[in-house]
Amino acid sequence: MKRILTLIVAVIGFSAGAFAQTGKAKTEIKEVKAAKDIKEIKEQKPVKEQKVAELKEVKAVKKEQKADIKEEKAINKEQKADAKLKKDGTPDKRFKENKALKEVPLKKDGTPDKRFKANKNK
After folding, report:
1. pTM check: above 0.85
2. Is 65 exposed, middle or buried (0-12, 13-18, 19+ CB in 10 A)?
3. Which residues pair with 85 in a beta bridge?
4. What whole-number distance in Å separates Cα of residue 40 and Cα of residue 47?
């Protein structure tokens, strides 16, 4: 019984070894993959250039938005300077000219916070 079991294990082991790949095939596969990767990289260059152009456009739009926000802040500061203030420096809402003042709520990065009604139309 032991001899038969040993014979079966040996046959399975030798058959598995016969189907193993040789070193030449692995190197050929790597060379083919490397050639495909180079072709893919060359094809992707125009795509990357388009993405870079799109990112530049987005940055330009954001700069314009930040400039608009700075202008709005400057206008609000001018209005506050003209307005009657409390002791702590905030506008006194009892006066008519101060009721019209609206501060635009902003996010940390300076863009308008769309959760507020004043910013939804911008």
Report:
1. no
2. middle
3. 91
4. 11
Place of tokens 């189907």: 19
Distances (CA, A) of 114 to 43, 60, 68, 122: 40, 20, 16, 9
Mean pLDDT by 10 residues, the chain (122 residues): 87 75 61 67 69 85 87 75 75 74 75 80 64
Buried b (16+ CB within 10 A) or exposed e, 100-122: eeeeeeeeeeeebeeeeeeeeee
Residues near 69 by beta carbon (within 8 Å), at least 6 away in sequence: 104, 106, 110, 111, 112
